[in-house]
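Late entry, written up from scratch paper. The run itself happened at the end of the previous shift, but nothing got recorded in the book at the time, so transcribing now.
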Amino acid sequence: MLALVVLAVGCTAADPGDPPRSAPRTPSGCGPLTSESVSGPTPAYVEGEPDRFPNDHAACAATWLALARSGFVAQGVAVRGRTAWVSGFDGDGREGHLWCTVVRTDLRTGRTEDRRVLRDVALPDGTRSCRHAGGITIDGHGLWLAEAARLWLLDPETLEVQHAWSLQAGVRGSFAVVDDAGRLGVGAYRSARRGWLDWLDPDALVAGSATVIDDGDVLEHVVGPSHTQGVFWGRLGAREPGLWWARSNTRCGILVGPSGRRGFVPGAEGMAPAGRDGMWVVSESGSRRYQEAGGHPVVPTLVRLDVADVRRWQRPGCEV
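Output as recorded:
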């Protein structure tokens, strides 16, 4: 039976759990970022140090992807150990031709270990191409890559396509996440109204022969905030795990979760666990596409945050 959950995640002036603006404190942590704490090759188009952002006292490390120099715009991230799989597209491409690119990279160096562009892929229902690569996550089945109208399953080692499904009947793939029960969540970005996330059973998808995912496959439908670019499942200092939503544009980031809203990484597009109290965040703000346009903060492609004290983080000072 499909369950419907509506989260109280609107952008109100006094969300429950928000820390008061009038309670300043001196934050402690391993941040903010400096060029010395960022690994990987700094792109030639970047000038100066990484910019400050809200709650960057918790920014412990960061990585520039080598592919950023070529115009890659990152959209999602999955992590295991020292390896990250980052999804995105070529920022120099034309609209309608922003082919999905998946990059396997070493988090210590930003070096590209493998890369695949999902264009003209032979599938049972014909030759298909993937666009935008809005979200990526990983579980025992492999890499789940989400785009608006299709869900892909890739082999993490070879980046070869194992399965693909068409998303229909309101199921959308702007971002992806896996929870601690093994469910796969895919969700929809909306700017003018609330977005949503649909929980699916990945075991059933892989075991079945269907090539379409629709509302009949949805285990639970969760309504979330507008401008959601990525989602994260975890505790973040709380007793019980839950969904955290990254709302952002290229100048602002807001993290929305069970304990309210917090200032976050500008341009945040996706999140992945980094140990017990860590989170990797992928940002598009530092890509060449936006840096050359001017007026956007310099944020490395990947930022690692200590999220053990998220409940004490400050509220956002910007809106999206």
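Residues 46 and 56 are 19 Å apart (CA to CA).
(Scratch paper discarded after transcription.)
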